[in-house]
Design a protein that fits this description.
By secondary structure, the chain is of the alpha+beta class. The chain has 2 domains: about 20-55; about 70-220, Glucose Permease (Domain IIA). The chain has helices at about 20-35, 40-55, 135-140; strands at about 5, 65, 70-75, 80-85, 95-105, 110, 115-125, 145-150, 155-160, 170, 180, 185-190, 190-200, 205, 210, 220. Helix 1 packs antiparallel against helix 2 (about 40-55). The longest helix is centred in the first third of the chain and has 17 residues, at about 40-55.
């Protein structure tokens, strides 16, 4: 068996860009072009820098996913700010393992499914916009929860949480969709956080402060 696999078909471009970024990139490029035609050099250079920054934010690199048995991969790029058992949550009944990943504006913001399974529910909550690295962001910020049931019958929940700057959560999956580990399912624009709720017996493979990559880094093992 191969040690790694492609959850999505590899991109045909050298610098893949997530589709939600196209309107912003084209808009910024057009304004920059107008400034250049008008010989407004300082504005054109500023527009060029802004266009480049937007391209970098919406980058969507291909990722290979480890095929290790029971491996739960990270749904996001970023820094682990919480990884411990919680006795209760609004997303999972009873004790569970919660892992929180904070994404700065410099991280890739495309989100990936942590484990193969079937989507049982997608729940959106229009909340507030506290800084995503705060604990209260998990409960009070705007968020979108994707509930997944694995082939073994385990329940996993991945929650996209808007941050202080983020104002758009994108989720492309619906109940009934069958997904594979590491597959793209959405993104959050401009700084945010993802929480993952796993069975309480999951064996952790990381610590608070670790940096992880979506689809590639293993958060833990279900068995």
């Amino acid at each position: 068996m191969n040690k790694f696999s492609w959850p999505d078909l590899p991109s045909q471009t050298a610098f893949p860009i997530a589709k939600p970024g196209y309107p912003l990139i084209f808009g910024a490029a057009f304004v920059t072009f107008v400034f250049a035609l008008l010989s407004l050099t300082p504005f054109a250079l500023t527009g060029l820098v802004i266009t480049f920054c937007i391209c970098c934010f919406f980058r969507d690199p291909d990722r290979v996913v480890p095929n290790q048995k029971g491996a739960v991969v990270s749904p996001a790029d970023g820094k682990v700010v919480f990884a411990d058992k919680v006795e209760e949550s609004r997303f999972v009944e009873g004790p569970c393992l919660k892992i929180s990943i904070f994404m700065s504006v410099f991280n890739v913001h495309v989100n990936r499914i942590p484990y193969e399974g079937t989507v049982t529910k997608v729940s959106y909550y229009p909340g507030k916009f506290f800084s995503a690295n705060l604990d209260k962001a998990s409960q009070e910020n705007e968020h979108n929860a994707v509930f997944l049931e694995t082939p073994e019958g385990e329940k996993i929940c991945t929650v996209q949480i808007a941050g202080l700057i983020a104002r758009r959560i994108i989720c492309k999956v619906q109940p009934g969709d069958k997904l594979i580990r590491g597959q793209r399912f959405g993104m959050i624009c401009f700084g945010s956080r993802l929480d993952v709720y796993l069975p309480v017996y999951t064996k952790l493979n990381l610590s608070v402060g670790d940096k992880v990559k979506a689809g590639s880094s293993v958060l833990g093992y279900l068995n």
